[in-house]
Amino acid sequence: MKTYTVNKIKNDCLNISGEHMDSVWNEAEVNNDFSYPWENCEAPLTTFRALYDDENFYFRFDVEDENVLTFVDQNHKMEVVDSDRVEIFFRRDKELNPYYCLEMDAHARVLDYMTNYYRKFDYNWAWPENKLEVKASNNDKGYVVEGSIKLSSLRELGLLNNNVLEAGLYRGYCMELPVQDKDADLRWISWVKPDAEEPDFHIPSSFGRLILK
Q: What is the Cα–Cα distance from 27 to 93, expressed in whole angstroms?
């Protein structure tokens, strides 16, 4: 399995909305090892960083995207699936019963849900209250999504074991928003190349390890 080292930061209990967080990100390992698993061309740049302290796991995606597309109708969390977005899936083990998914768009909307293998989605589930914070911003290169997750919630869900998180890191690159009866046109980018002939992140081989150092 691919691994990524999550460094510990000195300033405990930072808030991702705080002014100090930008400089702290310099302490994180840079992971830009993202690709199109099912296409023979170079993917646009996606960069992932993560840090932790005694209370929180912090993450950040920097996404290069010339035309950021976000579908907004009723502003429901399900609209994230038709938008440019980044994703983190967390699992307890390779059985994927259950695993937990966070899909986050450039408006900081979060599609959070629980799943059992294979593709038994529970969209009524939500991340434990007040244990997740996400913000997003656009820039001249694309967009940034940052978040913090309480370590206590990761432990309660059985996801953080021996300072290791088994996680999948993905990106949905939206080429065209949905119109009438036509779904959004999306291309799929991943940190780990899943063992699948067709696009599918909801399988055991799409996960790697985030090691809290």
A: 29
